[in-house]
Amino acid sequence: MLAGCSAKTETSAGAKPQAAVTAPEPPIANAPLRVRVLTQDQYFNSLAYVFGPDARLDARFPPFRRTDGLLALGAGAAGVTASGVEKFQHTAQLLAAQVVDVRHRDFLVPCKPKSTTASDEACATQFIKATGRLLYRAPMTPEKLAATVGAANDAADKVHDFYRGLAFALEGMLLDPNFIFAAEKSEPDPANPGRQRLDPHSAATRLSLFLWNQLPDDTLLKAADRGDLNTKAGRMKVVDGMLANPRVEEGTRAFFGDMLGFDDFDSLSKDPMAYASFTGATAIDAREQTLRVIVDQLIKKDGDYRDLFTTRTTFLSPSLAAVYRLQTAPGWVEVNFPEGSQRAGLLSQVSFLALHAHPARSSPTRRGKAVREQLLCQKVPEPPANVDFSIVEDPKAIYHTARERVTAHLSNPVCAGCHKITDPIGLALENFDGAGQYRDTEKGAVIDASGTLDGKPFKDAAGLGQALHDSPALASCLVRRAFSYGVGSPDTGGRDELMAYYNKAFSAQGYKFKGLLRNIALSDAFFTVAEKTAEK
Amino acid sequence: MTDLNRRRVLRGMLNGGAVTVALPLLDVFLNGNGNALADGKPMPVRFGTWFWGCGMNAKVFTPKTFGTNWELPEEIACLKDVKKHLNLLSNFNAFKDTSPNLCHYTAWVTMRTGIAPESGDHRPGETYDVTVAKKIGRTTRFQSLTATATGDVRTSFSYENANSPNAPEWSPVNFYTRLFGPDFQDPNAPTFTPNPRTMVRKSVLSGVMDQTNRLKGKVGAEDKARLDQYFTGLRDLERQFDQQLTKPDPIAACLPPKAAPEDTKIGGDTELVAHRHKLMTDLMVMAVACDQTRVFNMAYSAAQAATIKVGYEKPHHTTTHEEPLDERLGYQPIVSWFTQRSMESWAYYVDAFSKVKEGSGSLLDNCLIIGSTDQSLARIHALDNVPMFTAGRAGGKVKAGLHIDGGGSTVVRLGYTAMKVMGVDIGSWGTKSNTTSKEVGEILA
Q1: A367/A446 same-domain check
Q2: CA-CA to A156 of 20 to 30 Å: which in A230, B145, B246, B264?
Q3: Which residue has the higher pLDDT, B72 or A536?
Q4: Do B325 and A393 touch (CB under 8 A)?
């Protein structure tokens, strides 16, 4: 029935003949201007940059709709509901009060008012001008500056308090759609008559969201003011500076956290009777472990992306050590698993194993599906609605291992079509239970963790990691996701040649993630837009 | 009767300063019968929803007889004490027409929008609570409130449009703070001082609205619609500020908790979910009693319910597909156990509204609440005989205590009926086979 059920690659990126590295960059077909709502992390990271890290803000914004594999791509379509506006206002109120409180005002407000009980235009102007430039990612127009200062003055005079007046104006600035929404603008591209490019401040914002997951800092805005982003040489200097900045670690965490579906950690829990060692702290640390390994391998070591799936280096905290049945010192400790250990690569980490499992059981199907969809950009079809579970439901059958259970799936042609593309991957991880703990047996039967990935056989989890490492789809999927994430728009077709161009360079440069970010951030496609900014 | 509106009288008395309002708080604000406000206006009628995931098994859920004389089968036996407040609607179908049967999605979207979604990414229209909120929610502090017992910010069955889910309150502490924190205007407070800070905020807000209008002129049509929505949100905020500047009418039933409840830990085991559901429900009930909103949504579990039975290896949804059918019983016992836990929380929800006295009846009497799910028999993703409940009497417009036979008609009829009861002026609702202009007349008083 479902003979045609095979994992579909979402586009054929990577499968096309690849252009030489020296070949000119292919044009980008679909390059819309985006109006993106800041994600929760972008919002908080930006506020931490502008006002310092000790602001205490408690808010959780709902994630956007996952689009083309990434939540971040939903930001370009997401609406803000009335309760969303209320949440922004509440956060603005909390933050503004903290900025002007007696503990912070002396270093967050760059001047002292003549009197604390009345308005002070000069001091208010100084604060608002500097803050507005960072929040709005461009210098404030004189009219807007005057209006905001006017609001601060009116408020200060009404409540007889300079700082409170300033806080009210700041609340308004934090609620301003020019802060909440990153609305891109374009300008004619002199190098390509008839074509449009991002204006310098929009380009700075796009770069900054991409590489740092926050709004541009002062240095980047100055570069935009000077027009540095309009030249190849200027861009190179800016991008290299950004990649050398530790903030790229946050950018990398955000990208991989999104791609790996780590938003699911917010609701992950395990059955305490089945997995007593897996607590809320384990879930938090499992997420952190994977992000640490990613940052260590890709940013600190500037290593090969594919090695993430084979590396035996990891980091453990005490709560994770319980799941790994190891003892560690307090804090995070680097651990290197020996050759021959099944703990090799990202798939053998608790984050992947526990997220893609049941509360009290592993799930070869979910794990295999996650590999296909998250790491290889392939789409596994949903099960048919009228699916017949009578085979696996047979109460008389005794299945000791997950392999025995899913083999039942594979014996039924309706199920087999899809399960054969997920289960042989997931079965390789069966030495790890639903909490990510190692086991040799299940219900007394020895676990057989052999499997295949697109025809390549392996015998265990480490073998799966190596097969994934060697799969061309692994790297091309990352390229595809990174580009979509960077420009903020999903791949709706027409990007294959461009992706092939990046793939070629990625491969030639040893699959260095930072190199990939650099190639994307320096390419014309990153700055080219198809639309002209609507005139008022 | 005088034309003087009570709010206006109080506002006049305030004259901008702190005033002690020496007025009795209780039934003086109601008419002699206790079924309307003293100024002759009827009590507000509120609209609510409640959701549980993964349906039921008709064999142990659906009563054998229709009408007023029906017995509660074992899966809903726990509804015994609230049965008199409920109608149970059986034998209504969600028609998918040419769309696929989207597991755990088609039925609830159809029920709440009148439209069968075409794909898992397709979120058609707006949900009916949003339509009702536009009609009756514009005078309260919150146009609507949405909450979940799952602790997951993604569990919501209410959306304004495809890209705008109404994010639920998921933390009891946050929900308490939003409702009854510093911005709460206690209607029964003996004194009322308009907060000068709120006046300033309102004036700052008008500047933000100007900025929003300016930005709208610089973006394309789709993004303009998003900024329009943002503008509407700002207007809502402005209304909240206005309300904080106005002395509210006293409300006898409004007895908000003095302190926030303790937050619950993350987790889906049924006891924890029931506890979280209770905390969120208690807050929601008081929010409605205090007239902070007239439209409210609560979700007990997600559609693919992740609720856990401690010691059992699979969550509710997976259990529906993988638990063997008990041949002796004729159904899946653990699945039924999960459904029963859901129904216990539904009973709690209905009971909580019924316990608040309002006028001569209860808060529930002035509500119409729809309880619904996403499938009938989840094991096979069945879309026929999808069960629905109503609770409350909508201020006397709706009867209760009935088991209704839908005769295989569309589930959309209940949403249509509810919207009509709430005053939404529509001639028909729904698309294709789900189009209806036929109310569920049996429940109308």
Answers
A1: yes
A2: B246
A3: B72
A4: yes
Q: How many residues does chain A have?
A: 536
Domain that holds residue B326: 45-173+254-443
Is the domain of B11 the same as that of B143?
no
Nearest CA in chain B to A92: B201
Searching chain B, which residue's CA lies closest to the CA of residue A273?
B311
Residue of A nearest to B100 (CA): A385
Interface size A-B, in CB pairs within 8 Å, comes to: 210
Distance between A231 CA and the closest CA of chain B, angstroms: 26
In a mutagenesis test of the B interface, which of A10, A34, A83 is the best target, namely the one with the most B β-carbons within 10 Å? A83
Between chains, do B313 and A360 touch, taking CB under 8 Å as contact?
A: yes
The Cα of B323 is separated from the nearest Cα of chain A by a number of Å equal to: 6
What pLDDT, in 10s, does the model give residues A133-181?
999 999 999 999 999 999 999 999 999 999 999 999 999 999 999 999 9
d(Cα B301, Cα B317) in Å, to the nearest integer? Answer: 10
For the whole model, what pTM was predicted?
Answer: 0.88
Question: Are A128 and A173 in contact, with CB atoms under 8 Å apart?
Answer: yes
Shared domain check, B19 and B65 = no
Is residue A51 assigned to a domain? yes
Same domain flag for B305 and B272: yes
How far apart, in Å, do the first and last CA atoms of chain B sit?
Answer: 28
Give the nearest partner residue to A80 out of B229, B318, B379, using CB atoms: B229
Q: How far apart are CA B95 and CA B104, in angstroms?
A: 14
Q: How far off is chain A from B35, nearest CA to CA, in Å? A: 32
Per-residue pLDDT at B394 exceeds 80: yes
A15 belongs to a structural domain: no
Minimal CA separation from B120 to chain A, in Å:
10
What is the sign of the dihedral through the CA atoms of B120, B121, B122 and B123? positive
In a domain, A50, yes or no: yes
Full domain range(s) for residue A286: 252-470
In tens, the pLDDT along A433-475 reads: 999 999 999 988 999 999 989 889 999 999 999 999 999 999 9
Same domain, B7 and B102: no
Rounded Cα–Cα distance for residues B57 and B61 (Å): 6
- Domain count of chain B? 2
Whether residues B166 and B300 fall in one domain = yes
CA distance A237 to A257: 28
Q: B220: which chain A residues are within 8 Å (Cβ-Cβ)?
A: 33, 531, 534
Flag whether B234 is in a domain: no
Q: Which tens digit of pLDDT belongs to each residue from B148-203?
A: 999 998 999 999 999 999 999 999 999 999 999 988 989 999 999 888 889 999 99
Whether A341 is covered by a domain: the verdict is yes
